[in-house]
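RECORD TYPE: inverse folding
INPUT: structure tokens
STRUCTURE:
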């Protein structure tokens, strides 16, 4: 019984640390994959969590910006507007 408690005291914090670390890593890398690229016509501009089950997102698609609500019930288009001009960066756009 003592050996079981010692193993529990050692491995439970280790497993919790791995879970916490993987969640932090996933949060950090969340927006880096699947976005960007010059030839893509769809891009997520910004997103915000409203609740644990609902998110607002602004999606750029064919020179339009579309505000959508994403929840466990699906996507709902809330608004649509012409795309705003993108700010120029000093490194990539200077010629």
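DESIGNED SEQUENCE:
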């Amino acid at each position: 019984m003592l050996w079981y408690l010692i193993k529990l005291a050692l491995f439970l914090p280790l497993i919790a640390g791995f879970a916490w670390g993987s969640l932090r890593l996933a949060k950090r890398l969340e927006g880096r994959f699947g976005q960007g690229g010059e030839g893509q016509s769809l891009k997520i501009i910004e997103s915000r969590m409203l609740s644990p089950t609902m998110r607002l997102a602004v999606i750029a698609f064919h020179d339009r910006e579309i505000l959508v609500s994403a929840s466990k019930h699906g996507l709902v288009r809330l608004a649509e507007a012409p795309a705003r001009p993108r700010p120029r960066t000093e490194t990539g756009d200077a010629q």
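NOTES: The chain has two domains: 1-31, 39-85.
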